[in-house]
Amino acid sequence: MIFPNDVFERAKRVRYLLTDVDGVLTNGVILMGEHGEEITGFSIYDGLGISLLKEANIPIGWISGRKSQAVMRRAADLGISECHLGISNKVETYHQILDRHHLEDNEVAYMGDDLIDLPILRRVGLALSVPNAVDAVKSEVHWVTQKRGGEGAVREVIDLILSAQRRLESE
Q: Between vectors from CA 132 to CA 147 and to CA 90, what angle results, nearest 5°?
């Protein structure tokens, strides 16, 4: 895939990837069983991409406005230690992550899809979204993935970062 030069240059500086969950790692649909259990689908491509990113020593974290046992389970399966759910003020959590990992805004990529994500998207070095995001978000990010949330969009971003940093195995 060919990326715009400015996006590729921004991706070279990324030391940490943060994402929203619903609508980015998932398709935004929540299925409920008859007993109230939640069923959430995650892309296997995103999961493998997260493993590749971690192998390249680039951590990933999730910040979501919603609490979900399914998301907590998936984060545990993938070894994601920065999984923050039920967060109403994402910027506060974002700053805590920056402090813990000694990061500057320009070293962070953030992927979001709705208005609650805009305050972080406006701060980071690489702001990303998915085609199923609200228009207000898509108009402010550096790049919109080709794949929709829950369909490998996060993997697309990971491939961008690893390619920009010459860390893709195929290179």
A: 105
Domain region containing 57: 5-164
pLDDT in tens, 129-146: 999 999 999 999 999 999
User: What is the residue whose two structure tokens read 């299925």?
Assistant: 31
Domain contains 121 = yes
Q: Is residue 21 part of a domain?
A: yes
Average pLDDT over residues 80-96: 96
Q: Is 108 helix (H, G, I), strand (E, B) or coil?
A: strand
The answer to whether residue 170 sits within a structural domain is no
15: which 2 tokens?
């030391």
Q: Are 159 and 48 in contact (CB under 8 A)?
A: no
Burial status of residue 97 (CB atoms within 10 A of its CB: 0-12, 13-18, 19 or more): middle
CATH of residue 109:
3.40.50.1000
Helix, strand and coil content of the chain, in percent to the nearest 5, comes to 40, 15, 45
Work out how many domains the chain is built from and give that number.
1
Is the residue at 171 inside a domain? no
The model's pTM is 0.93
Report whether 63 contacts 90 (CB < 8 A): yes
Q: Which residues neighbour 4 within 8 Å (Cβ) at sequence distance 6 or greater?
A: 143
